[in-house]
Design brief:
Structural class: mainly alpha
Distance between the termini: 69 Å
Shape: rod-shaped
Number of strands: 0
Largest sheet: none
Helix content: 55-70%
Order of helices and strands: HHH
Strand content: under 5%
Length: 115
Amino acid sequence: MVPHRGSQAVQDLTIGDQYLITLYWIMSTMTTVGFGDLKPYTQYEIWTCILAQILGATTFGFIVGNMASLAELLRGRAGAFKEKMEFLVRFMNHCNIPTEARPARARLTFFTSAS
């Protein structure tokens, strides 16, 4: 079905086969899988490649999306903790609590936020 090594040209194929070859080329390009040394020649092979590329791109996108969500969640929790510590330091400054009497975590926040 797919032209190779001296067989018929793409424009001599049926419209359906031309669209299938075009769809394969689009999927190979968009999923950045490339064209490689092994090329599909039958309709079954082309459809299998297209479905494998869609599945691979979807799986990759799912994994990257979940990792980004996890990173944002962790960053949000760290930001909330930092806000609470900064509030605690401001409160201790307002109450004139000596630095030596403050908890170690609050002293660390005081010195890092001061710089």
